[in-house]
Amino acid sequence: MNVNIDLVDENDRTGSMYLSMNGELKELELLIRYDADINYVNRYNESVISIIIN
């Protein structure tokens, strides 16, 4: 079964982005292990890294 862990919602954010916004770093690490795209930049110019830094 294939699952796309990089799906975006109506706010153009991925699950990885929400995890980083909420400080759920252990869960984020799990998605990264499964090749989540942390370099994706949405229409608000946000990425996982930029969210963590801010």
UniProtKB/TrEMBL annotation:
Gene3D superfamilies (UniProt xref): Ankyrin repeat-containing domain (1.25.40.20)
InterPro entries reported in the protein's UniProt record: Ankyrin_rpt-contain_sf
Record protein name field: Uncharacterized protein
